[in-house]
Design goal:
Elements (H helix, E strand, L loop, with lengths): L6 H5 L5 H9 L1 H9 L9 H17 L4 H11 L4 H8 L2 H17 L2 E12 L5 E2 L9 E11 L3 E11 L7 H17 L5 E10 L6 E3 L3 E2 H20 L27 H11 L1
Parallel strand pairs: 4-5
Antiparallel strand pairs: 1-2, 1-3, 3-4, 5-6, 5-7
Length: 274
């Protein structure tokens, strides 16, 4: 199956959901990250803690003990003392998730575990290698996935922040739906897919939030065409050069690693000081 892909979308491939969203949200940050490939000026503390927590989860899901997983995660992603305290505050949530996940696997007849699975699809929506520079058009990394006995793909993405209602958050929906598209390409005779976000903060009964199950037919006829159209839509934000930043006091600038280099952001700060 072929899809209508804009010239700009082809030019800046390969894409991911986060890359697509960034093109639409802040073309200037896109330029720093994906065109200039500039080194990060500063990594927000919340990002560093989240990365370490994500690594702890990955290692523990792979069978490592809590103590060893934390030790290795901190060796790979060093934290300040304050950030270490923030990581410790997430440990109970990590333990609780692992217990729930074990029960989930037993109840759903899980036959295969997918950890940090790197998948790519080409411009026709067919499977290709994540690193195939000649073919890959869209790619992503699945934090945690399983294949059930009924050949369904279940994907759970970890977030270190406070639980949010994913039914009201298009960002989470887009991310999980993109995994379904990649699963359709990579899982032979896929029956369907379902995605969830595992938040590590907030009320325990709200931490795991699910999207509805989607059949393979719906992924093929609705979600996959949407994904390719969405990428082309976001790429159109890159049409106007030079790229312009639209700084804000909070999101998305609060999570941008290029704030010190961004003249528009620094000008906004100076204006706030007057």
């Amino acid at each position: 199956m072929s899809f209508e892909i804009s010239e700009l979308a082809q030019t800046f491939a390969p894409w991911s959901i986060s890359k697509s969203e960034l093109a639409e949200t802040c073309p200037k940050q896109f330029e720093y990250k994906y065109i200039m490939k500039a080194p990060e000026d500063v990594v927000p503390s919340a990002n560093r803690v989240g990365t370490a927590a994500h690594r702890v989860l990955e290692l523990r899901l792979g069978g490592m003990s809590a103590k060893d997983a934390k030790k290795q995660a901190l060796e790979e992603h060093p934290l300040t003392d304050t950030e270490g305290d923030d990581l410790r505050a997430l440990e109970d949530a990590i333990d609780a998730f692992l217990k729930k996940f074990e029960k989930f696997c037993a109840a759903n007849g899980v036959v295969k575990l997918l950890l940090e699975q790197k998948w790519g699809v080409d411009a026709n929506g067919e499977a290709c290698d994540f690193f195939d520079k000649e073919k890959v058009f869209f790619r992503g990394v699945i934090d945690l996935g399983v294949i059930t006995a009924s050949n369904d793909l279940i994907v759970i993405d970890h977030k270190s922040g406070v639980a949010k209602d994913i039914d009201k958050n298009q960002k989470f929906k887009r991310q999980l739906n993109s995994y379904a598209v990649m699963g359709l390409a990579h899982v032979k005779d896929l029956a369907g897919a379902r995605g969830a976000i595992n938040f590590l903060q907030g009320p325990e009964d709200k931490r795991i939030q699910w999207l509805d199950y989607v059949s393979a037919d719906r992924i093929s006829t609705v979600i996959r065409p949407w994904l390719f159209a969405y990428i082309s839509f976001c790429a159109e934000s890159l049409k106007k050069v030079p790229y312009v930043a639209k700084p804000k006091a909070k999101w998305p600038c609060s999570y941008c690693s290029f704030r010190p280099s961004c003249s528009a952001y620094q000008e906004m700060l100076r204006g706030a000081e007057i």
